[in-house]
Design a protein that fits this description.
Elements (H helix, E strand, L loop, with lengths): L11 H14 L4 H14 L5 E4 L12 H8 L2 E6 L5 H12 L11 E5 L13 H4 L12 H20 L3 H14 L5 H14 L2 H13 L4 H8 L3 H12 L9 H7 L6 H4 L8 H14 L5 H4 L8 H11 L8 H7 L5 H13 L6 H10 L3 H12 L4 H12 L9 H17 L2 H13 L2 H14 L1
């Protein structure tokens, strides 16, 4: 808490900020909440209160709870007329403290929201930012006005860095970065260079350390770090190589994975004597999608270390190039059951019916029960006619592929259950046919599966 909510000498805005912080952090303290609301009501008993967010002119929050919440909820101004009651003030406080509750205006509490949503939210859960990635800049703004806005943000960023206010610096850097696509072409490059120059080595270290402490800020930290280019990618890679596990540093993997220029820096990891570094290199190169590294990645699908093989298979699954398919097909017959299962899941994730027959062939010869189940689930998840035809044939045949009496019946029931779990249009078609043509037990299982999908 920033201070006692009962401070009778504090400005109205400070008291409202303290109430919001109390509602966010200690809402169960009902007596304190009530005292804070009554104090607010006493302040506007005879005089109105006007609170302006100033979002377009000042991006850094500098630890101001109220300013942070106004920016997060995109509130431009609040006017509270004399005589506003405690009920309305409490409703206002609760709305501002929430992350998605509506903020309503009343006759006594008039709230002005920004008319056009900005592509920036400086606070709140990470989910509130997820749908803003790649959002266009503010509409209906004159180019010169937007230019002035970005210049102001960069000035605020410099101030935040000088003061070592790293949360504010992160907010400002992201704000500038999000607005750059809307800046005039002849000015954009200069602004991008100015922003990039702010990401000095000490600043990068401070932002990374902050992200360790505040996990909800890791997503936007990754976004800002991607702007730093090769030197920042090199530093992040050094940090990742310090340990065999990623853990809380996963946001650095996300950052490097969005920097195509980092591929030459990452590729040498595939030749490292440390398997952890090979896994890291495979993961990053899969995210980067650089076709040039496929020739180095493909042979590692047979790496003697299983964890490394699985990482390489996952990486190959990210490539759409045909060169990545053959090692995945070969992995379906690898001596390791975990490798066979992962290869099947990776091929199925492509969603193409072209992989139905290779998966069916692997299913025919699979002896490990758990791996058989995983390959079956992978095949059932392919929403394609080829998958439907393959599984329907296996489920309905009386002799041949799985002609092992009770064992065959159990596996055919497993196929029906996998189709029901897949819950795709193709799986439903297969269930409908099995419900019409199969033996009694299978028909009933298929009908139950169809009812479960409704």
């Amino acid at each position: 808490m920033t201070g006692p909510v009962s401070d009778a000498d504090a400005p109205f805005a400070d008291l409202l900020g303290r109430l919001i912080q109390l509602l966010r952090e200690r809402p169960e303290r009902e007596a304190e909440v009530q005292n804070a609301v009554e104090l607010l009501a006493s302040r506007v008993e005879r005089h109105e209160a006007l609170i302006e967010a100033g979002i377009e002119n000042s991006w850094a929050v500098d630890g101001d709870v109220l300013k942070e919440r106004l920016q997060a909820r995109q509130v431009d101004a609040i006017r509270i007329v004399p005589g506003a009651g405690a009920v309305e003030l409490l409703a206002l406080g609760r709305a501002l403290a929430a992350d998605d509750a509506p903020i309503a205006s009343t006759q006594s509490v008039r709230v002005k929201l920004l008319p056009d949503p900005l592509p920036l939210l400086f606070s709140g859960p990470r989910e509130s930012l997820a749908n803003l990635t790649g959002a266009p800049g503010p509409r209906a703004r004159a180019g010169d006005h937007l230019t002035g806005m970005v210049e102001g943000i960069l000035r605020e960023l410099e101030k935040a860095i000088d003061r070592q206010q790293w949360l504010a610096a992160l907010h400002d850097a992201q704000a500038a970065l999000r607005l750059l696509p809307s800046v005039r072409d002849d000015l954009r490059r200069g602004f991008a260079i100015a922003l990039k120059r702010c990401l000095t080595a000490p600043v990068v270290e401070a932002l990374i350390e902050q992200a360790y402490r505040i996990p909800e800020e890791q997503g936007r930290t990754s976004e800002v770090l991607r702007l730093g280019g090769f030197p920042v990618a090199e530093r992040m890679l050094e940090i990742l190589k310090q340990s065999d596990t990623i853990g809380p540093r996963a946001f650095l993997v996300d950052a490097i994975g969005g920097m195509p220029e980092a591929a030459p820096l990452v590729a040498p990891l595939l030749r490292s004597p440390r398997t952890a570094e090979v896994r890291l290199g495979a993961d990053l190169l899969g995210r980067l999608g650089s076709i040039e590294v496929l020739k180095d990645l493909v042979p590692l699908a047979d790496h003697p270390d299983e964890r490394t093989r699985l990482a390489v298979i996952d990486a190959l699954g990210r490539f759409r190039d045909k060169a990545a398919l053959e090692p995945l097909r070969r992995a379906l017959s690898h001596p390791s059951s975990a490798t066979r299962a992962r290869a099947g899941q990776t091929l199925a994730a492509r969603g193409s019916g072209a992989y139905a027959m290779p998966l069916l062939a692997a299913l025919e010869v699979e002896k490990d029960p758990a791996t058989w189940e995983e390959l079956l689930s992978a095949l059932a998840a392919i929403n394609a006619p080829e998958s439907v035809a393959a599984l329907t044939r296996v489920a309905l045949e009386k002799h041949g592929l799985f002609s092992f009496g009770k064992a065959q019946a159990r596996r055919q029931l497993a196929i029906v259950k996998s189709l029901a779990a897949a819950n795709t249009p193709a799986a439903r078609q297969a269930l409908e046919r099995i419900a019409a043509e199969g033996p009694e037990e299978l028909r009933q299982a298929a009908k139950e599966g169809l009812r479960g999908e409704e």
